[in-house]
Amino acid sequence: MRPPEAGGISARELRKKFGDRFIDDPSFLSLYSREASFEEPSAGPLGVVFPTSEEEVLWLVRWAYETETPIFSQGSATSLSGNTVMTKPGIVVSFERMNKIVEVNPTDSYAAVQPGIRLEELNVELSRYGVFFPVDPGSVRSATVGGAIANGAGGMRGAKYGAMRDWVLGLDVVTGRGDLLKIGCRTLKCRNGYDLVRLVVGSEGTLGLVTEAVLRIAPMPESAAAVLIYYDDLPTLVEDVVRVRAARVWPLFAEFLGPAESREVGLEERYSLFLGVDVNRGAERDMLNRLKGLVRGAVAREALGLDSSMDLLEPRRKLFSAQVALMQRRLGSEGLLIIEDIVVPVSKLPEAVRRMVDLAERLEIPLSLGGHVGDGNLHPTTWFRRGDAEGARRARAFIEGLGKIAVGLGGSVSAEHGIGTLKRDLLRMELAPTVLEYMKALKSIFDPKGILNPGKIL
Ligand SMILES: Cc1cc2nc3c(=O)[nH]c(=O)nc-3n(C[C@H](O)[C@H](O)[C@H](O)COP(=O)(O)OP(=O)(O)OC[C@H]3O[C@@H](n4cnc5c(N)ncnc54)[C@H](O)[C@@H]3O)c2cc1C
């Protein structure tokens, strides 16, 4: 066994406090040292702690503050930008066991939850009340509320419902100074000073650890209409999404797959667009006809009703496994997948797609396409062989080139996956030095010793 000696404090104190919820067995630690991205950790965990209460998190952060031990918080580690990877030896705090629903209040439109609950589990419970939590990342079956808050996650219903920053009303947060802040409200409107909730959402565990969240919830849409449309080229697909938005139809989802990805999930080998709109009961057929009148691709499937519209979207949920299969066919188990994340104004989507395809061709790298498209967010994906230095260089050049395309078109280097370790340089390209100075000043107030998820964002 390798006891954590960080800051001169032995594992004994952590074991005394957490018992068997502190683990430092090396074979177990490796399970907590990676995330879904290809970013490599530069250190391994000294131990993993599984708190079960706010009081325990408070104790742990105060201990870390005293001993100057870095803390890396983790939900399900599905991050894609190096948000959770360890940059120096420290303690992993896993929120797996803080996964309770504290309160559901449909009348006041909120649910209070602990951070470790998975988004899908939350929605299973909320469905009993006829309400739901709309943020729906592709990883919804694994992703936790705390991880989604800290990443500012979005997802498949982003075209209609936005991202986490639009759905968090209040938070309990333990800052890097070991203070418990109760911020925000349980009401839909709330103007109690500076909006610290918005600051913590998307802060990737660098300002504080979320111990409880008050989430806004919404009534389930009454009904919906949806179509699956095939295209022979991507520009027409993207232009159709812009046409639908320009016609003031606000899609519930607008998601797409490239030809190879479509074939992989059992569809025709063409570009597939999944377009769904929520409507009141009785208005499904009108909306369906409206959609069919707006788009120029070949309508292959139709759905009327909410459940069948969500069923129509199911093949899109298999995108990640399709991309892994495509990569493995070329590279076996040696492939590393890079799922990129940029955003541009919706009207600039056709131009962004053109430049993105040119970039991949210029760099001679594989390009797998699919994901969101309705809110200007794109996830171009590529891969290279583990250990292939030239492949890695080209992949990095792709990430940088995409960032430049996004910023050049008035967008951002990340829509929802965050900055982590992967996009720190790109953030410097996007933001003015003065803005970064203000961010650093905020970081030093929340975390003066830099113990919370060091080496991320700034
Ligand atoms: C197949 C696949 C599809 C995906 N699709 C989407 C998508 O559609 N949209 C999208 O936005 N993202 C997507 N992601 C990225 C990722 O799944 C989401 O960001 C997700 O919300 C992360 O949740 P998690 O529980 O895995 O968090 P983790 O990866 O464990 O952590 C995320 C960040 O939050 C911090 N953190 C975790 N818990 C806490 C806490 N309690 N307090 C403070 N900080 C904390 C971590 O330190 C880290 O910085 C996808 C990932 C994969 C692998």
Query: How many β strands by DSSP?
Result: 20
Rg over CA atoms: 22 Å
Overall pLDDT, averaged? 95
DSSP summary: helix tally: 17
Bound molecules: flavin-adenine dinucleotide
Q: Determine the strand fraction and express it as a percent band.
A: 15-25%
In whole angstroms, the N-to-C terminal distance is: 34 Å
Descriptive overview:
The chain is α+β, with helices and mostly antiparallel strands and 458 residues long. It has 4 domains: 6-94, Uridine Diphospho-n-acetylenolpyruvylglucosamine Reductase, domain 2 (2-Layer Sandwich), CATH 3.30.43; 101-219, Uridine Diphospho-n-acetylenolpyruvylglucosamine Reductase, domain 3, CATH 3.30.465.10; 223-317, Alpha-Beta Plaits, CATH 3.30.70.2190; 326-430, Alpha-Beta Plaits (2-Layer Sandwich). Helices cover 35% and strands 21% of the residues. The chain has 17 helices and 20 strands. It has helices spanning 11-18, 26-29, 54-67, 119-127, 145-151, 158-161, 196-200, 234-246, 259-264, 284-294, 306-312, 314-317, 319-331, 349-363, 389-408, 424-430, 433-446; strands at 22-23, 45-49, 71-74, 90-94, 101-105, 110-113, 131-132, 168-175, 180-184, 208-216, 218-219, 223-231, 253-257, 271-279, 298-304, 335-339, 342-343, 370-372, 377-378, 381-385. The protein has a 5-stranded antiparallel sheet. Strand 5 and strand 6 (110-113) form a beta hairpin. It is globular and about 65 Å long. 50% of the residues are buried. The model is unreliable at 1-8 (pLDDT under 50). Bound molecules: flavin-adenine dinucleotide (FAD).
